[in-house]
Specification:
By secondary structure, the protein is mainly β. It is built from no helices and 19 strands.
Length: 251
C-alpha cells in the first residue's frame, strides 16, 4: 500500500526508464519502465523476476519467475491478474504454474465505500475463505483494518491533510508494533519503527505502551532537487549511528 507523500517505485520516475535500488554496493532491486508504467522488476534479494502486462482497459497481469544464481535461469512460478474499475482494483486472481499447467489458487474481491476500500474477500481453491474488513472514522483520519480469520489488526492514523502519521500493528494478544511518520515539503522525511511492545488500553480506548522500547531504528529520506528519492539513511534510534544506507539511482 502506497500512501500520500511516500515514494512509489511502480510509477515511472519522471523521464527515466530504469531505477536501481542498492545497499552497500549490492543491487537489491531493479525497476524497468515503458510508457510511464513499470514493465519489469528484478528482486535480487528474494530471487524474484516480475513481468507486467497491461491491457487496453487498464486491467493488468503480473508473471512471477523464480531464479537461483542467474536471472537467465528463471522459471515461471505464478501469475496474478488484476481487474480494475474506475482506477480501483476490484478483483485479484492468483494462478500457480504446476507442471506447465495453470492452477487457480484464489480469487480476491474488493469492495469500496466511495473512494475508500471497505472489504476484501479471498476464496481459495480448497474452500478456505480469508476476509479483511476496513473501517473508517467520520473524518477519514483513522483506518482500522481487521483480519477476520486470524488475530491480526492494523490501525492507520492520518492527519487532516491525509498524510499517514502512525501505524499500529496488532499481531499477538497484548503486543503492538508502532511506526511513526514525519513529513517535510509534502514528502516522507522520517520513519521511526518501534519493536513489538506490550500495551494496554486506557478507559478512553487509547493505546498505552507499558514496555520500554529497545533496538529501534529511524530512517531518514533524502531527495534530489527534482523530487525523486535519492537515499534512505537508517540509523540506530538511540546512538544515531548509521546502520545502512539504501541508494536510488535513475537511468
Amino acid at each position: 500500500m502506497i500512501f500520500k507523500g511516500h515514494f512509489n517505485p511502480l510509477l515511472s520516475p519522471l523521464y527515466f526508464n530504469k531505477l536501481t535500488i542498492s545497499l552497500e554496493n549490492r543491487i537489491k532491486k531493479e525497476y524497468f519502465y515503458k510508457e510511464n508504467k513499470v514493465v519489469k522488476i528484478i528482486d535480487y534479494f528474494n530471487n524474484i523476476y516480475s513481468e507486467y502486462e497491461y491491457l487496453n482497459n487498464d486491467n493488468y497481469s503480473v508473471k512471477f519467475y523464480l531464479f537461483d544464481e542467474s536471472v537467465n535461469d528463471k522459471k515461471i512460478d505464478s501469475i496474478k491478474k488484476f481487474t480494475l474499475n474506475e482506477n480501483k482494483i476490484i478483483r485479484e486472481d492468483l494462478i500457480a504454474i504446476e507442471n506447465n499447467k495453470e492452477v487457480n489458487i484464489y480469487k480476491g474481491e474488493f469492495n469500496y465505500s466511495g473512494d475508500y476500500l471497505s472489504f476484501e474477500r479471498f476464496n481459495y481453491k480448497d474452500g478456505e475463505v480469508y476476509r479483511i474488513e476496513h473501517k473508517w472514522n467520520e473524518k477519514k483520519t483513522i483506518n482500522r483494518i481487521e483480519h477476520l480469520d486470524e488475530p491480526t489488526k492494523v490501525e492507520y492514523t492520518f492527519d487532516d491533510n491525509k498524510f499517514l502519521i502512525e501505524c499500529l500493528q496488532f499481531k499477538h494478544k497484548g503486543s503492538v508494533k508502532k511506526t511513526l511518520y514525519e513529513y517535510k515539503s509534502d514528502k516522507l522525511f522520517k520513519l521511526i519503527e518501534f519493536p513489538d511492545l506490550e500495551y494496554k488500553r486506557t478507559i478512553f480506548g487509547k493505546i498505552k505502551i507499558i514496555e520500554e522500547a529497545q533496538f529501534m531504528n529511524e530512517t531518514e529520506y533524502c531527495y534530489y532537487e527534482n523530487g525523486l528519492l535519492q537515499k534512505e539513511i537508517i540509523r540506530d534510534y538511540e546512538t544515531k549511528q548509521i546502520v545502512d544506507i539504501i541508494h536510488y539511482d535513475y537511468e
